[in-house]
Write a structure and sequence with these properties.
Helices cover about 30% and strands about 30% of the residues. With about 180 residues, it is α+β, with helices and mostly antiparallel strands.
Length: about 180
C-alpha cells in the first residue's frame, strides 16, 4: 500500500482559523471605508446646501433694504420660527422663514407667490436664526447675521454629520440712512 500525503485535521483547522481572521480584518476595513465615504458624502451635501442657501439670501440682502426689526443675536432656538423681511428693488417684498416641522428644519422664500422651500430634504437645519442689526434709522448699515447648524439626514446614525456655520451679510442699500 502506498503512503498518501495530505493535510491533517490540525493543519486544516489552523488554516481555517487564519483565513477567518483575515476575512474578518478585511471586512472591518471595508466597513470603515464605507462609513468614511458616507460621512464625506454627508459633508458634501451639507456644504452644497449651506452654500446655496447663504448665497441665495446674500444676493438679495445685499441689494435690498432690510425691513425686519433689529433682533438680538443669541444662539438659535430650533423650536422658534425665524423670519427675515427685505424690500428688493426689483422683486418687491421678500420674506425668508425658518421653520421646523415634522422634526426637519427648512428655509422658505416668499416673494408674493407663496413660500418656496430653498433647502434640500437631504439636510436638516437643526438650528437657524436671522440676527438683524442697524435696520432702523440712525445712519448705520443694516447687517444680517445668520448662525445655523446643519445635519445630514441620509445614512446611518453613526455616519451622519453635523456642521455649524455663521455668516454676516451687509445691505448695500444706504438710502434709508440718508433720509433727513
Amino acid at each position: 500500500m502506498k503512503y498518501q500525503h495530505g493535510f491533517s485535521l490540525v493543519e486544516l483547522l489552523v488554516a481555517a482559523t487564519i483565513f477567518t481572521f483575515v476575512v474578518a480584518g478585511v471586512t472591518g476595513l471595508f466597513m470603515q471605508a464605507l462609513d468614511l465615504q458616507r460621512r464625506a458624502t454627508g459633508i458634501q451635501k451639507i456644504e452644497e446646501n449651506a452654500q446655496y442657501l447663504l448665497e441665495s439670501i446674500a444676493r438679495e440682502v445685499r441689494v435690498s433694504r432690510v425691513t425686519s426689526a433689529d433682533t438680538v443675536c443669541t444662539p438659535p432656538d430650533p423650536s422658534t420660527t425665524h423670519t427675515l423681511t427685505i424690500e428688493h428693488p426689483v422683486s418687491g417684498p421678500i420674506t425668508y422663514t425658518y421653520t421646523k416641522t415634522s422634526g426637519v428644519g427648512v428655509v422658505t422664500r416668499d416673494a408674493g407667490s407663496g413660500p418656496e422651500q430653498i433647502t434640500s430634504s437631504d439636510v436638516d437645519i437643526s438650528a437657524f436664526a436671522f440676527c438683524v442689526s442697524g435696520s432702523g434709522p440712525g445712519g448705520r448699515q443694516a447687517r444680517v447675521t445668520i448662525p445655523m447648524t446643519l445635519r445630514s439626514t441620509a445614512g446611518r446614525a453613526g455616519a451622519q454629520v453635523t456642521v455649524s456655520l455663521q455668516t454676516t451679510i451687509a445691505s448695500r442699500d444706504l438710502s434709508q440712512d440718508l433720509a433727513p
